[in-house]
Amino acid sequence: MSTELVSQDAFYWFVTALTGGVAGAWFVYDIINLIRVRHADAADPLIRDRRFGYVMGIVIGFAGVLGCLRFHDVV
Questions:
Q1: Taking the CA atoms of the chain, what radius of gyration do you get in angstroms?
Q2: Using CA atoms, how far apart are residues 20 and 31, in angstroms rounded to an integer?
Q3: pLDDT by 10s per residue, the chain, length 75
Q4: What pTM, to 2 d.p., does this model score?
Q5: Which of 66, 73, 72, 75 is nearest to 23 (CA)?
Q6: What are the sequence ranges of the domains in the chain?
Q7: How far is 47 from 31, CA to CA, in rounded Å?
């Protein structure tokens, strides 16, 4: 008899869904925010800082989704 609550495959899929879901939502959220500030004044340092932050969020979200896909040998 096993003392595990769920199988190893079920655990892997749960963690993948959780990680991929958060990373995917983060990716989409930052793309939407980047689109919203695209017509803002580029001379304003706060706007440039926001754009940089949104681009970094997109990169992090993409890395999370790509990591989940690579873990399951999709990519």
A1: 18
A2: 16
A3: 678 899 999 999 999 999 999 999 999 999 999 999 999 999 999 999 999 999 999 999 999 999 999 999 988
A4: 0.85
A5: 66
A6: 10-71
A7: 15
